[in-house]
Each structure stands twice: as structure tokens, then as C-alpha cells.
Amino acid sequence: MDGSFLSQQEVVTASRSFVCIRLLTYENEAENRFLKALWVGRSREVENTTFAILGPDGKKVLVKPSRSPGHTFEDGRELAATMKRLARSYASDQKPGSPLPTVASVRLALDVAACDRQPLIVLNGSNPRLAAKLETLAWSNDFIGKFIYSRAASHMDLAKISGVEKDAVLLVIAPDRFGQSGKVLLQLDSSNASTAAIVTALNRGRTMYVPKDETYYDHVFAGRQKGAFWETAIPVTDPMELQARSWKK
Amino acid sequence: MQKRLFLALALVLGSVVLCSLAAEAQQRPRPPELGQVLPPFVRSEMKFTSKQRQQIIDLEKEVKEKLLKILTAEQRQKVTTLLRQPPGKMGKPPMPPGEGGKDKGPGKDMGPGKDGPGKDKGPGGKPPKGPPIVLPPFVTEKLNLTDTQKRDIDDLDRSTMMDLRQILTDDQWKQMHELMRKGPQGGPGGPGGRPNPGSRPGSRPSPGAYKPASQGIQWFATLDSGLREAQRTGKPILLLSAAPHCGGVPGIW
Q1: Which of B133, B157, B245 to mutate to test the interface with A (most CBs of A within 10 A)?
Q2: Model-level pTM greater than 0.90?
Q3: Exposure winner among A75, A136, B146, B160, fewest CB in 10 A?
Q4: What ipTM does this complex have?
């Protein structure tokens, strides 16, 4: 994925006028069908990455789909300028009530958090009031784009997380290097889950989580040595990815 | 007698000249060849086990075979010529890692009323791959590569770098990067090999550390939730799909 464009400040600023959807390729059948209908590469199958800008209905194409922003735009500045221009035709006011942007499962969320080098926030069990507080904070200027979120429906979802206490309702978790397990940095139970306590936990969590600084090659090499391998929910179809995964055979 | 003395002297002098020529040739490293992944000025500074030497030889043979398939005959000829150019005639200095000769036009937005799927254009959207290793930028710039060739060479670069990483120890890996950063003796284009890949005179090379792709953007992680939000707010959609693993290794896009 072309990180250089999407981490540029002008693109991040422009993204506030959009609903930003980042799908996890090969993890959901329905999403895979959507991607295949939207764009395929030379292989005529879904490839590792897809990029597009669409209308609010998810159907109208505003920027022709391609493999990545780098395929369509010269640089982040051009992408940001195009996004600003397109956004003028649509509503861009911040409407309150955006839901918590959760990843479908804790397992996936751990991996995404490791990829993004961000702490993972997990809501444990059903607690609508807590969820509402967290939603508001997640979209606030202080915390937007700084965490990955997920929900744990049962204790089984937290099997790979160490340090979880029995009554914890909100967990701030540091993913491991390969996103296959996690460690609780902070946790709140229902007796101390005020907005102020959540704010403190989020701020402290960001300070406490210090991801490893490494090159792409170091990461992949270390992962292969360790045998860290990701099994996708549906088969991989990108030819280069298939070739690159052959080390595991 | 004098004739014999003269012959003996000529023989000795001839030997001395031959020896010094040989010594000079030894000091002047051979120019790099197609498929060579470690430039001569790096190879000469590093110590390898015999097993590593053989592995590197095998790897370079494989790289050469793949490059021969990717390049046209004319391009192959050009590469050979360019790699053998004497120092000082290397042309434009190589670009830092991550920057390439992308020659794209302006952004291709559809505008209202147009839609339809698009086609793959150019190299895949992969993570930053570091300095090029199979062909230096000063060579690739002059080859008029097609988008397909650029992508194939990029992919070959990545896989070669991974293979090399497997061959070298951690210390050797760091040493290799340090030597490549410094360049051959005399700076870029100096005697013995390629210009310092991934840098230009006067600039600091990129450290190559992986940086996350999208800090700051708040992503909806499922299609359903994102579509519902877009319909609720009337905002357009910035859509991305990516695999949270590379080559099967999780924890990296």
C-alpha cells in the first residue's frame, strides 16, 4: 500500500471531508465481490491493493479505480487537491453520531494495529454507554486517526491478549510486532469508565506503545524466520503475493 | 655475451612491466555486470563464507536470467555499455530511494457522470522497497522501460533484496547498507563500480525505515459500516483495500 501519499498532512486534512473506508483484502467474501466488480488488475482477479474515490452511494466513480493512489496521482499534493475539489460537490460538515469504526474481529484488529503501528482499543462485552463515550472521543480532534478499534463479544476473542482482567470493559492493547498477539497496557472496568478516565487511558496508551522501528525487509525477514504467517479468510488471488507466500510451503 | 645480457635484461624488464600491469588491473576493480547484486566496491569490503559466496553467485545468476527475459535485446546491449562506462560518465546521479522516474500525467478524476473500471497502470502499490539493487537508476533511466518492465524490475528488486537478506547475517546486512550509503572510493562514479545507489551528491540517503501508511486518517474497516456512514452524511468515499500482510508475513501492509 502506498503509505507515502496517505500519511501526508494535506491528504489527511482532505480526508476529513470523506468517509474513508479501508477494506482488508481477502478477509470477507462480500467485500471481495465488491472489489472485483470495481477493479481488477492484469490477472483479472482481485489484487492486494485497490484504490478509488466514489460517491456516497458507493457506486458512482469519481476517480477511476486503480492499484493505489500512486498509480493515479503524481504525489500526495495532487491527490489532496483532487479530494478537495471533489468534496466541494458534496456535504462536508461534521455530523455528530458517527459510529465507532471497528475492525470486524480482534484477530484482524491486532494485525491492523501492528501494520499501522497504533494501539488497539477493545470494548469488552456490551456496554452501550461506554461505547457512546468512546465513539465521541474517537472522532474528536484529539484522537481521530490515532487508534484501531474492535469489540470482543466473548472471552475467546481475547485469548491472544495477555493481562486481561476479569471485569475489564475497555482495553488499551499493544500489538506484538507481527500482530498475532497483544499485551494490555491499560484497562478500565465499569466502575471507572468515565469520559475523563477514558481520555486519560487513551493518552497514556499512546505514550506507552512504542512500536519497533524497522525496515520493510527486516520485518519480512524476521517474520519468515519466526514462521509468522497470515492465513487469509478467502484465497489470495494476487499473483505476486502468491509467489511471495511460497516460502511457507 | 652482450646479446645474452641484453636479452636477460629485456626479459626482466618485461616481467616487471607485466607484473605492474597485473597489479594495476587487480587494484582497478572490474566494472559491474548484469545481474550483479552486490557492486564490486561493496563485495571487496565484505567478508563472506564460502557458502555465502556460492549463494550470492547463484542469486546473481538467477537475477541475470530474469533480467535477460525482462529486457529487450537493445536494452540489454545498452545496459552492458552503460555499466562499463568509465567513472565520470555516469550521467545523472541516481535518485534517493523511494523516488522514481514516474512519468504520469495529471490526476485522472472522472468528473460527474462518468464511471467504469480502470486498468492497471505501472508498478504495484507496494511498500517502499529501498534503493534499487538489480539495476542502478542511472541505467534504468536510459532504457525507456515500459510500465510492465518497470513493474517487473521493481518486483525483481524486492525479491532479490529479500533473498539477499536471507543470505547475509545481521551485521553483514548493516555493513552492506553502510557501504552502499558511502559509495565507492572517490564518491559516486568513482573507480570500481556503480554510483552509490539511492543517493545523489550532497544529499542524505533515506534511512529506509518502514513508516505506517495512514496515520491520521480515520478508516472504517468494513464496507457495510462505511457505506452506511456515507449515505447518512452525504460525504464521498475514499476507498482503499489492502492486505495486512506481505508475502504472508503479518504486521505489515
Answers
A1: B245
A2: no
A3: B146
A4: 0.95
